[in-house]
């Protein structure tokens, strides 16, 4: 298809979708104030843009709850009720969602897998699905790392994101929970008479369809808890798998029109979850021509890219980097090596790792205020310190070293707070430098690469943005430590000026 006909088709699908939406009983859409527009030139797909100045609190559109695609509204539930019987009261209704199967057995469904089944079912009904015009505007291709080639993933270098892509977990979930249900009910999913019946998909086709639908749900679905705060805001510190909060406590649904809104870390609209309908309202005055933006939460660039397949400069403030404990331990060992035998070091390590609180790695991040009630960010994000848990684990490790070897350094560091702090800061500083060296390019090289030079693909640009963001946090943490060390030294000098030199402190 040439570019012009692609463009026409895109516009036609948008028109059909908006027309279909506006005709839904109970739906409203302020077409005098807003329009769905083609934002592909900004690599943002469709979005909603203000046509006129909008007053705060204006209701921009309303989505009746029965227009949402979820387990409660799709006919699939009536056709295979046994699959939807989750043994919890109301577990499959978005209004009373409490769907906590905790991962469950390999075939047990959750709200996440049920929505995948529902969406596959609706997709395969083609023209008989009442959501057809909406399904037609959902994406068929994604820029989330799940779909990247090994070479593209390699651009992320040493980012912890690489281990979180979760392709294999997603494959397993689809093979365990999705394909068997479809195979057992082929007459339902591929009904006679529909155009899909002539073509019963094989397992590979179903796998790729389920990936596509799963990724759509990841980037588009809303959490439908009826507490007026249910806008999809996955918990940040949940497990890192693809399925994370999908196994959680709330009901998911696809909300036509609400999910045409793009989002940023500063935003101007909010989706309110009412009893019978969801409404999009303006949080502040919006000028004609401005895009209406929702909020996905304080996500670092890496997470934004993993879940939604895009990055924005405003999300950089939430960037994080993971510091593996192993690097801190290695640095400590270099400083204490002479004092502790290898076997004792191993014993101390085993002792520390046996602790329930033991962490393999620590997340470094800046302190940042939340957006205000108008969706604006008023202060800068600043690196203000290392995670407390890292300091606690450092102390626990020294205690373990003392216990197994009674090494001088550990004994002294545990009894002298200044010495311990100096040792800690030095070890973490060394570990941060070592962490930076794990990336194939330096921060300065990444800055030279530049974003939007036209030489990189979009995925490469996003990868550079993510790895560069992590290196920036590493640098800020190092600067913070150096400043902290200087301050400690100055404090010591002042104390020594008053009290004379302190033998213990000179060692730091
Ligand atoms: C809920 S949908 C929003 C509608 C979407 N643009 C569309 O065309 O269907 C979320 C997806 O929109 C895109 N998106 C959202 N906010 C964006 C932004 N600020 N910049 C670029 N893309 C964005 C991402 O691809 C994301 O996965």
UniProtKB/TrEMBL annotation:
GO biological process assignments: methylation
Region ranges (Disordered): 87-107, 485-508
InterPro entries attached to this UniProt entry: Rubisco_LSMT_subst-bd, Rubisco_LSMT_subst-bd_sf, SET_dom, SET_dom_sf, SETD3_SETD6_MTase, SETD6_SET
Keywords for this protein: Methyltransferase, S-adenosyl-L-methionine, Transferase
Assigned GO CC terms: nucleus
Source organism superkingdom: Eukaryota
Domain called SET: residue spans: 25-297
PROSITE patterns the record matches: SET
A Pfam family it matches: Rubis-subs-bind
Methyltransferase listed as a keyword: yes
CDD domains: SET_SETD6
GO terms of molecular function: protein-lysine N-methyltransferase activity
Protein name per Swiss-Prot or TrEMBL: SET domain-containing protein
Gene3D superfamilies with a match to the protein in the record: Rubisco LSMT, substrate-binding domain, set domain protein methyltransferase, domain 1
Sequence ranges of Basic and acidic residues compositional bias: 87-96, 485-496
Protein source organism: Parathielavia hyrcaniae
PANTHER family according to UniProt: N-LYSINE METHYLTRANSFERASE SETD6, UNCHARACTERIZED PUTATIVE METHYLTRANSFERASE
Transferase is among the record's keywords: yes
